[in-house]
Design a protein that fits this description.
Blueprint: H1 2-9, H2 23-28, H3 34-46, H4 48-59, E1 68-73, E2 76-81, E3 84-85, H5 87-91, E4 104-109, E5 115-119, H6 120-136, E6 144-147, H7 153-165, E7 168-171, H8 178-188, E8 192-196, E9 199-201, E10 204-206, H9 209-216, E11 224-228, E12 242-244, H10 245-250, E13 261-262, E14 266-272, E15 280-285, H11 287-300, E16 308-311, H12 318-330, E17 334-338, H13 349-357, E18 361-364, H14 366-374, H15 378-381, E19 390-394, H16 400-410, E20 417-420, E21 454-457, E22 470-474, E23 484-485, H17 489-497, E24 504-512, E25 518-523, E26 527-530, E27 533-536, H18 537-545, E28 550-560, E29 564-573, H19 581-594, E30 603-607, H20 620-628, E31 639-640, H21 643-648
Parallel strand pairs: 4-17, 6-7, 6-8, 7-14, 8-11, 11-12, 16-17, 16-18, 18-19, 19-20, 29-30, 30-31
Antiparallel strand pairs: 1-2, 3-13, 4-5, 9-10, 14-15, 15-23, 21-22, 22-24, 24-25, 26-27, 28-29
This protein binds adenosine-5'-monophosphate-propyl ester.
Length: 653
């Protein structure tokens, strides 16, 4: 690990530009100045439990107050013990009493251009109805429900309906394969799956129901499937198992009391890649998660009553969970949801949506910013983007060039940019500028959120001096932290709490500059960040070796201008198989089938042997250098041989 962190420091640009919040923005912001931030930070540091408890009282609506703020038996935390609360009633019911009743909760646009607006009242009604559908199908508190859906309002409705009755949802991104879906359904033991006949993507149809059918051939827990009609695709409905959403909703009552759930009741499981071949089910619970989501949304996106907020993520990732649905609706704000790809039918689709709905706050990923900037300034210039007042970035380090383009061309030089660092595990944003308070530096996520004690340490857990790279840790439990890995507390402990005992290790490398600003340098473990999505190298390797021609494989990330990281797979073949272009294609397709298109290797390189140390460890650093072109290999047309290089670098890894 240490090697990688050190290595990356040299590649971090020394960026000196500083962008102070403009005073008009600061005046109206929730947190108005650096002094205000410092005060909040200090207050939280002095008495974190009192800090969070005050906010939990102020920002959330409880059925019953807690008796203990935090029960911390490292690494297991319980927040607001004894408190009773419901996420769906915090996101809906409490807004129905006043002027938000008929305010837009969700403004949705389908890829073909169809639109739908659901007011808080509408959303409440449909959530209650679908909660009753779930109940009618035998779903009870604590049961798991898998959601494998396109970005349509029914996904939001299904999430909130689960939350309403205390069913734990497990959303599986629609781009994952049938095999990946099957594994996630089996691990969670889901009883019911909600899907759609398809989704619209790049002008075509993304099939979903067919993949669920395939997955269910090898699952035992699922009793029922509910299917939304979205694309009118031809799907086969299995009698007694499959039901149409619209038919079930017809007769469903719109009255459904929100369950009074324990603060620690599991709200959702979300699978994410780690360093083994098997993704882990990150478990988030109710009260603490909602508090993190609510307060961070309010302060970081500076949400105001009249704002139209849009996050372009897919709800299949944690960003969509927290910052399209829970954190935004809990604040009673208007969230925009878009079904399709950013470049359909033309490269200005996102800017068209910003103009059409007069979006004020826009949150996206660096990979999208880089890709869209490549397409030329004429696309954003065709649109009036003057409604924007705040921009956000998430998922991977944003390079200063992309930051500057975002700032100038999209933000017109007027919008603060919040570069937000967090993870599926953290539940909500941990390191970020507060837009009215913190001067930003392009490429830095800046400072920890109040209540979050982040530090950069060396291998021994000691704080490193300014501008020295190290490991990013979080020293104290926080309300929206993951509680465990589903059915695997041992893995939870080992993965996050054993490198530095008693503190949370993020898996990221970082440095702090002399002003205390944090610069994230990327993963220091065998996890890649591909277009802002996490993928374990082992996961791709397991998929490759499950192909009959493959003997062994090693997967590493290589720098890529758009995706951030490209996937490069080194493969040795079983005897009797010859390396050729056709086999490369087959292997790429095989990985797509096993995991999904996001895991499809960009490069496959055949080799006779993988370079290994004397003790038999694959020399990943050497492979990374080769993949990045830092180590010249001469002619690499078909079969490569790294034995000489490996000998030269024997002691490195
Ligand atoms: O490496 C960090 C990177 O994304 C990882 C978390 O991935 P995931 O759980 O899929 O969640 C992504 C969305 C929250 C982190 O370990 N990452 C996330 N945000 C940033 C980032 N790297 C640099 N800067 C960020 N703002």
């Amino acid at each position: 690990m240490a090697g990688k962190a050190q290595e990356d420091i040299t590649s971090v640009l020394h960026e000196n530009r500083l962008f102070k919040p403009n005073s008009d923005f600061s005046k109206q912001a929730h947190i108005k100045s650096r002094t205000a931030y410092n005060q909040l930070y200090k207050k939280a540091e002095k008495d974190p439990e009192a800090f969070w408890a005050d906010l939990a009282k102020k920002e959330l609506t409880w059925f019953k107050p807690w008796t203990e703020v935090l029960d911390w038996k490292p690494p297991f935390a319980k927040w607001f013990v004894g408190g009773k609360i419901n996420v769906s009633s915090n996101c809906l019911d409490r807004h129905l009493e006043g002027p938000r009743k008929n305010k837009a909760a969700i403004i949705w646009e389908g890829e073909p251009g169809d639109t739908r607006t659901l007011t808080y009242q509408d959303l409440h009604r449909e959530v209650c109805q679908f909660a009753n559908v779930l109940k009618n199908k035998g779903v009870k508190k604590g049961d798991r429900v898998a959601l494998y859906m396109p970005m349509i309002p029914e996904l939001a409705i299904a999430m909130l309906a689960c939350a309403r009755i205390g069913a734990t949802h497990s959303i599986v991104f629609g781009g994952f394969s049938a095999a990946a879906l099957r594994d996630r359904i089996n691990d969670a033991g889901a009883k019911l799956v909600v899907t759609a006949d398809g989704g619209n993507r790049k002008g075509g149809v993304l099939t979903l129901k067919d993949k669920v059918d395939e997955a269910l051939k090898k699952t035992e827990s699922v009793e029922t499937m509910i299917v939304v009609k979205r694309t009118n695709s031809d799907v086969k409905m299995k009698k007694g198992r499959d039901y149409w959403w619209h038919e079930e909703m017809k007769g469903a009552s719109a009255v459904c009391k929100a369950a009074q759930l324990d603060s620690e009741h599991p709200l959702f499981i979300l699978y994410t890649s780690g360093t083994t071949g098997k993704p882990k089910g990150i478990v988030h619970t109710t009260g603490g998660y909602l508090l993190g989501a609510t307060v961070s949304s309010k302060w970081i996106f500076d949400l105001k009553e009249n704002d139209t907020y849009w996050c372009t993520a897919d709800i299949g990732w944690v960003t969509g969970h927290t910052y399209i649905i829970y954190g935004i609706l809990s604040n009673g704000a208007t969230t925009v949801m878009y079904e399709g790809v950013p470049t359909y039918p033309e490269p200005d689709r996102l800017w068209d949506i910003v103009e059409k709905y007069r979006v004020n706050i826009f949150y996206t990923a660096p990979t999208a910013i880089r890709a869209l900037s490549r397409l030329g300034n004429e696309w954003p210039k065709k649109h009036d983007l003057s409604s924007l007042r705040l921009l956000g970035s998430v998922g991977e380090p944003i390079n200063p060039e992309a930051w500057m383009w975002y700032h100038k061309v999209i933000g017109g030089g007027n919008c603060p940019i919040v570069d937000t660092w967090w993870q599926t595990e953290t539940g909500s944003i941990m390191i970020t500028p507060l837009p009215g308070a913190i001067a930003t530096k392009p490429g830095s996520a800046t400072l920890p959120f109040p209540g979050i004690e982040a530090e950069v340490v060396n291998k021994k857990g000691k704080k490193v001096p300014a501008d020295v790279g190290g490991y990013l840790i979080i020293k104290r439990p926080w309300p929206s932290m993951l509680r465990t890995v589903w059915k695997n507390p041992k893995r939870f402990k080992e993965t996050y709490w054993s490198d530095f005992p008693g503190v949370y290790f993020s898996g990221d490398g970082a440095r702090r500059d002399k002003d205390g600003y944090i610069w994230i340098m990327g993963r220091v473990d065998d996890v890649m960040n591909v277009s802002g999505h996490r993928l374990g190298t082992m996961e791709v390797e397991s998929a490759l070796v499950s192909h009959p021609t493959v003997a062994e494989s090693a997967v590493v990330g290589a720098p890529d201008e758009i995706k951030g990281t490209a996937i490069c797979a080194f493969v040795t073949l079983n005897t009797g198989h010859k390396p050729n272009e056709a086999l490369k294609k087959k292997l790429k397709a095989h990985v797509t089938q096993e995991i999904g298109a996001i895991a499809r290797p960009d490069q496959i390189r055949f080799t006779n042997h993988l370079p290994k140390t004397r003790s038999g460890k694959i020399m990943r650093r050497l492979l990374r250098d080769i993949a990045a072109g830092r180590e010249a290999m001469g002619d690499t047309s078909t079969l490569e041989d790294y034995t000489v290089l490996a000998k030269l670098r024997q002691d490195e890894d």
